[in-house]
Amino acid sequence: MRESSDEIQDGFVWNGFDYDLQVWVSDGVIMPCAHPNWMRSSGKMCCLVYHLAGRLIKEVEGAKRRQSALAIQSTIAE
Ligand SMILES: [Zn+2]
Question: What is the extent of the structural domain holding 56?
């Protein structure tokens, strides 16, 4: 089981889960949600993630900027 193994690049989640946006990120790209198509009928979107899917995490406003795991650990140690 992986723990706190999210990969961070320039303060953004590069591979892992962004808790502010509630999206999974793979190589800096936001993964699509898993909602079925029927939830996106008559111009309605199922969720925010559907809009964000395929975009670069760096270009999305509100993305969480995080310290690297190493930086967080050193902060805790102080
Ligand atoms: Zn959705």
Answer: 7-77
Per-residue pLDDT tens over the stretch 49-72: 888 999 999 998 777 776 555 444
> Which structure tokens are listed for 52?
């964000």
2 in any annotated domain: no
Cα-to-centroid distance, 53 and ligand 1 (Å): 9
Query: Residue 5 Cα, ligand 1 centroid: separation in angstroms?
Result: 25
Distance 51 CA to ligand 1 centre (A): 9
Angle formed at CA 33 by CA 28 and CA 39, multiple of 5 degrees: 155
State how far the Cα of 64 lies from the Cα of 31, in Å rounded to an integer. Answer: 16
Q: How close is the Cα of 10 to the center of ligand 1, in Å?
A: 27
Q: How many domains does the chain have?
A: 1
